[in-house]
Every structure is written in C-alpha cells, then in structure tokens.
Amino acid sequence: MKFSEEFEQRFAEMVTHYPTKRSALVPTLLYAQDETGFLSDEVIAELAARLDLTELEVHNVISYYSMLTTKPRGKFNVQVCTNISCLVRGGEEILHHCAKKLGVGNKETTPDGLFTLEEVECIGACSWAPAAQVNYDFHENLTAEKMDKVLDEYRRR
Amino acid sequence: MADLVSHPDEVKVVSRRFGQGATNIDRYLELDGYKAVQKSLAMESDAIINEVKNSGLRGRGGAGFSTGMKWSFVPKQSAKPKYVLCNGDESEPGTCKDRLIFEQDPHSIIEGVMIAGLAVGAQSGYIYVRGEYRYLLVIMQKAIRDAYAKGFLGKNIFGSGRDFDVYWHGGAGAYEVGEESALMESLEGKRGIPRIRPPFPAVVGLWGGPTVINNAETLASVPHIILGGAEWFAKIGTPKNGGTRLFCLSGNVAKPGVYELPMGYNLKKMIYEVGGGIPNGRKLKAIVPGGASCPCLTADEIDVNMDFDSLAKAGSMLGSGGVVVVDDAQCIVKFALRTMNFYQHESCGWCIPCREGTDWLKKTLLRVHSGGGVKKDIDNMQYLAENMLGRTFCPLGDAAAMPTIAFVKKFRKEFEDHLEGRPCPYEKAGVAEEVMA
C-alpha cells in the first residue's frame, strides 16, 4: 500500500499529537480516502495495522461518519444541501437540476466516472444558501445556471 | 471565502479582525494579537476564571452555560493530564459562524485555547474542525505552525517557563459529534457515541483527564475579555448575557449574512432592519431563532430580545445563533419534515427513544406531507415527540423533538390541510418522497 509523501509526513506528525495512536484514526481515514477515492479493504488493513487496531474496529468507525465511504465514487463528488436554510431558498430545485443534468440519482455516479451526486445535510453555508460542495470546494448562492457553470468547469478539469 | 456583510448596529468584538488579513500572524500581532495570552500569563489562574465568570460569557455552541463556571469545575490537582478542547464541529442547521472565525481570525481561537489552558492548568489543547471545512483545517494548520515558529507555542512560551501545545484535529462528517462527550469519543478515534454523565468532562474527559470543552466562538471571545475587561464585555450585552453574538441570518430574508450584534438585540429589528425584511413581497411566517433544534416562533412572537433568558421565556432557545427566516410561500409540514429527516439521519441509534422516535416522526411527516395522513397522526406526532424529551443520553433526541412539538402546536391548521389525500397546498405532491427515497 503506497500513499503520497505528503500523506506520510502528515501521518507521522499526527501520531505525535495524541497519547494514544488510535486517536489519529478519523482524520487519517479521510486523508487516505482523498488519495485512494474510497476506503478499500487494502487501505483499511494498512491503517488498522499502523494504528494497532483490528480491521473490524476500523470498519466500525467508518460506518459512523458520513464523509467516509467504502464504495468507489466519481472523481467529483457533488454534494447538494437540502437542509432548512437551503430548502427555503431552492436547495431541492438545485438537487433536481443536478440529477437531470447529470442523469443520475442520489449517491449514483455518471457512467464516465466523473461525477457522483449526493444529497447532504447542512454544510455550514446557511447565510449563502442554496449551497453545494464539490469535493471540498464550496459553491454558494446557487442558481440553476450557476450550477451548470460549476459542473462544466469541473468537467473541463 | 464566504462573503462578509456589515450593519451600523453591529458591535464588532469577535469579528473585529474579519476582512483584515489576520490569518497572517504578523498582521494578527499588529491587531493586538497574542497580547491577551501574555497578560494571562501574569495572572493567577483563579483571576482568569473570575474575569471570564464576571464577563457573563455563556457557551456559544448552544447550551449557554457560564464559561467561567465550566472552567471552575476542573479540579486543581489531577494525576492525569488536563486538556482544552475547542469544538469546531459546527453542524447545527442554520449555523455558519464558527466557519467565519476559522476563516478570518484563526489565531484568536488558538489564543482562547491557550488562555483556557492557563486558567485550568492544562498544557495542551486540541482544535477540532468539522470534516467538511477542509479549507479551514488548512488555515488552522498554518496558524498553529506559525505560532510554533514564533515561539508562542511549545516549550517556555513567551519566556514564562511554562509549556503549552496546540494540535489540530479533523472530523469526517457527523452532527452528533458536536455534543461534547461524543466529540471526545471522536477525537479518541471512535464512533461519536455520547458518554453517560456524570462523570462530567471537567473531571473525566479526554483519555480520562479533566477536560474543558468550549465552542470556537466562546474561545475566540476570551482574549477580548482578558484585554478589554469583564466589565466592558458584560456591559455590551444584557444582565447575565455578556458580550455579543454572531447571528447567522439565513432563509427568506433580503440581506442574509453573519452579523455580530449585542446580546439581547431585538429579533424583529434584526429581521427588518439588519436583514432588510422579507423579499419578493412575501410575508413572514415563522422564524427558527437559534438553529434547527430550537422551537420556531410565529410572526406574532418575534418582538423578543435575543439573549438566552429572553428566548427561554418565549418558549424557545438562543441556541447556536442560526436565525432561519421562513416566508409564507413555504410549507411548514415540509420544513418540519426536512428538519426531522436531518435528525433521523444523524441519530447514532444508541438510545431507543431517539433512534425510533426520529424514524417514526420522519415516516409520519412524510405520510402527512404526501397527503396520506389521518387526523390521529397529528396528535400522535406530538405525543411521540413529547415522550422523547429528556429520555436520551445526549440532547439529540430533545433537539429533534422540540421543533416538532412547536411546528405541530403553532401550525396545526397547516398539518390538517394536508390530510385525507389532499395535495400539499404549496407544491406538487410527491417531491419530498422522491428526494428522500
């Protein structure tokens, strides 16, 4: 199992943060997932060994956190918020628009593997609603036209 | 970067350095940065705690507990190391204020953590940032590195002979982790299941050591209190509610944004003057005054002062400062359903009243909204929600039940209008089901 140099540096730093190794688990899983796209059995086995945990213990943690996934996703994860502040400003319409535009439903990936669509809960962009996150980037004060532009930009990357 | 707003009624304390490049440590120093921690180093720990107590600072995460009091519960002597934990797992729907502090003034949080550490005798602090806020974690990582490089953190800080370390930590998506005992579980690398209390974190917290846990806005207020004095801070607010509050105006309001207003600012004024009123010729229907978990207020109930005690008297809560404005084009049943969909999604399933309660309430709301409800559903929802109150380990069960009770009580007619096969008066039936399937 090979991670990037950056991951290794961060991991080495992180385990010095805490009195127990296990404490590094949640942020480490997310950083690993950023590199591998999803948490495969191989990644889980590697991290479990490094943190003196069983694979079952790692699975147990993964299933709790909504950002962690053991299933492959598209290159760009389009996360549209439909919680209350976004709801009253058209968040559902943005979600429907994305579904139509990408031709996929919630938690589905386009056949070219580029986009996964996901309906998410509050992402902390309430005063700039409706909002979405593509991977970690915030896109706010959205309209259908603005969302089209956002998706087109990622398609060109 | 989120857009900043401003209004003449604002009193900028926590947001004073917003928009001024304070993420740069040298700029932060020019703006009185790290002066408060140096002042604190010359103070007795009890003097720091008393200053914070007298300032009337209350927890900005939502519970509104006296910060100085919380610090005073940490035992002086402890065989195990003590810790300070900054709660930056902001996830209450309607709340986006800590995000701005992390983005605009990260060093103020570090300084707050250090002062809390000096007050309770801890030598290390952790700053937990929610997983979705990755760009803020990057900002915080740099801020911590810069503070170490200047010698403000680590061994012998400011030549005082004392040591203090601050570490960053990132989450991975979980609302419940914002509850303090679940936050500690998460930091220890586990599922964020709440712990039974007592013992309280101040006695047995992170890795068994006494731990002070404060919200990011609370900690960012502390350096200003140390520099400006308790009396100055207390006077900004109302009795027992010191200082200011970052209010996140969102929803159907003309000028949404995060505004820093004195504690006790009138809600009606906040909506119509600061927020510019309700746009598109619409009328106000309801306001959720402090994040999704707070019981809503109707348009007739908004002449209320925004402090912890006044909101409690009005039957709601000041909560996390998320003010969600709802106009008369919105369906309250749908709004209640979205609220419950969230809590059902975020319930960890540890306590049965919360796990089953949120699920049944969501199912019932879904049925009522789609026109398949019967009259008894309305009373059942209220009965069910009332029976969740106070019966769970953590406040998530209450957070789900309280808004539901208020929606049903205050907008009963609107629920009745959805019954017996009638379509939602506000939209095409079936939309919610399709989205949430």
Folded structure, characterized:
The complex is a heterodimer of chains A (157) and B (437). Chain A is α+β, with helices and mostly antiparallel strands and 157 residues long. Helix content of chain A is 44%, strand content 13%. Chain A is built from seven helices and five strands. Chain A has a five-stranded mixed sheet, with helices on one face. The longest helix of chain A is centred in the last third of the chain and has 13 residues, at 144-156. Chain A starts with a helix and ends with a helix. Helix content of chain B is 42%, strand content 12%. Chain B has helices spanning 25-30, 35-41, 45-54, 67-72, 98-104, 106-120, 134-149, 180-187, 216-228, 230-236, 267-274, 308-313, 332-346, 352-369, 375-388, 396-410, 412-416, 431-436; strands at residues 83-88, 124-129, 165-170, 211-215, 244-251, 257-262, 265-266, 284-288, 297-298, 305-306, 322-327. Chain B has a five-stranded mixed sheet with strand order 6-5-11-8-9, with no helix packed on it. Chain B is globular and about 75 Å long. The two termini of chain B are 33 Å apart. The mean pLDDT of chain B is 96. At the A-B interface, helix 2, helix 5 and helix 6 of A face strand 3, strand 5, strand 11 and helix 13 of B.
Task: Please outline what is shown here.
Chain A has 157 residues and is of the alpha+beta class. Chain A contains 7 helices and 5 strands. Chain A has 2 domains: 5-62, Arc Repressor Mutant, subunit A (Orthogonal Bundle), CATH 1.10.10; 76-156, Glutaredoxin.
